[in-house]
Design the sequence.
């Protein structure tokens, strides 16, 4: 082995040994006290209509591609559940629907957080005027949620 190659090899070995040994003491960090609790994210609460538009306390919106709710009067909004009374119409009742639709109670739930806002992602519609076959379709409606 010639001198420049030997010197280079020795330098590489020394640098590798120094790099592997690290700098300073090898102690673990010392942690005291409890971890901070995560803060509740606060912000506006929305429901998305069938087109994905964010709405807050809407007076009406497209619930499914075949059903709409209107004349909504909200008793609760912004907590785990939102509850409103209003009117329900749908393609499933034409031509026998009353002009303003059926009286109904709409409950929104399953809040999902998106950055600093939340969306209701589930709806239940109750009305004593609906035939049982139609009630099944409206008792568990998944609402659109914007992509993160």
Sequence:
């Amino acid at each position: 082995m010639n001198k420049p190659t030997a010197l280079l090899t020795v330098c590489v070995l020394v640098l590798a040994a120094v790099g592997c040994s690290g700098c300073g003491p090898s102690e673990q960090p010392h942690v005291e006290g409890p971890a901070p609790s995560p803060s509740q994210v606060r912000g506006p609460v929305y429901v998305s209509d069938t087109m994905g538009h964010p709405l807050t306390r809407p007076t009406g919106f497209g619930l499914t591609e075949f059903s709409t709710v209107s004349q909504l009067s909200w008793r609760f909004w912004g907590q785990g559940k939102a509850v409103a009374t209003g009117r329900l119409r749908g393609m499933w009742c034409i031509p026998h629907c009353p002009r303003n639709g059926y009286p109904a109670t709409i409950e929104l739930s399953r809040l999902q957080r998106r950055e600093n806002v939340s969306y209701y992602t589930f709806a239940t519609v109750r009305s004593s005027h609906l035939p049982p076959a139609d009630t099944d379709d409206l008792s568990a409606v998944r609402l659109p949620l914007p992509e993160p």
Notes: DSSP finds two helices and eight strands in the chain. The first strand starts at residue 45 and ends at 48.
